[in-house]
Amino acid sequence: MANWKESKFYSILNFKCPRCHDGELFPPNTLYSPKRFSDMYESCPCCGLAYEKEPGFYYGAMYVSFGISTAIFLFIFFVLNFFVKEFTLTMIMTMLLVVVIGLLPITFRLSRAIWINVFEDYEGPCNQIKKREFKPNKPPQY
Ligand SMILES: [Zn+2]
After folding, report:
1. Residue 103 above 90 pLDDT?
2. Distance from Cα 102 to the centre of ligand 1, integer Å
3. InterPro entries recorded for this chain (predicted)?
């Protein structure tokens, strides 16, 4: 790995655009807002990459999010295993609630950041690559 800032881990852990690693994926100061944690920019504010490549693009991110939740749950379970003699159903349910609901904003955003990084590669700093013109998708009709 040549450079930390060029790696996909940088983009994922900092919630940055996978193409330029400069623009944000999500608006600032919304992670812990119950109504706004799911807000995501439609395109990169810096290089113009469309974040929602097609309608329902992030459907697959749900599987990533499921995997993250499962991994965190198992980790907590194994750690607690050293301190707890016997797990009760209440304890397991509490752990699940904390992991699934309590960490929802983080797993939601992490899974989307991972998902878009599967499909988009780093091209270079925002001021050195060609800006893409963003054509907004029509809102879904139900
Ligand atoms: Zn970008």
Report:
1. yes
2. 29
3. DUF983
